[in-house]
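Model it.
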Amino acid sequence: MPTVDQLLKEAHNTDDDDVALAKYLAALELDVNDSRIHYNIGLIHKYRGQWRDSFKYNKRAFELYPDDDASRWNLAIAATALRDWKTARDVWKLCGMTIEGEEGPITDNFGTTPIRLNPDGEAEVVWAQRICPVRARIMSLPFPESGVAHGDVVLHDGAPVGSRLDSNGNEKAVFNMLEMFEPGGYSTYVVNAEADSKEMVDELESLCEERRMVFEDWHASVNPMCRACSEGRPHERHDHEIRARVWNPRRLIGIGARLTKDVEAVLEAWDGVVIDWSVELERQALSS
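Modeled.
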């Protein structure tokens, strides 16, 4: 019969989560008080979004080994996903976090951070405002294919994967999105247009800002990266810049708006040529 350590090693050495989970459960039958086993089972359930099971096993891992930082974090993540704010608040405080208030959802200011959407698929890194240690409100305008819109709140992991520089040149850790937590009120509109100059694009941006809409000239702002750079520290040896030296009048533009009529108004007032436009990711406008 294999020992607990042998089963843990076999689980660590497989890329198949189902096989790993079976190994961990077999190990648990041999020793129900080994915090490592509970932690690893909770970890698999975390990445599967199975939050009740993740909470259960991480809670036990924490009870068996209260000083383990990883177990505390994963317990707090699971509690947050389950909206168990009391447990989340208690555990974050044990992690040394300063949390405002005594009950209910945590809506503090933890600064800005880059978030990697769809880390296991067509990943996209966007900027967000952290409102708790593992929740962030999206500030950028993601591509609609991501399923995430400006203003959405996402649940993200606690372990950083790579970094980006903010507008002030400060290096910020990138966190992988785990799942959608709460949709916002901004729908994503995609505009195919022609603009003779950057000034003409700037005019459309100003029209959007006047109506408190979010604007993104994706043709100019999106920089594809190799996986090594995306999950590490981007460097100059790779050519990540897709902006052409010669102005390209064809533009792919994103607009984040609460109301379709506002998009219609700015496109009608704009001097550029609108080839076509549509709402590609729809959200219900929130009452103000």
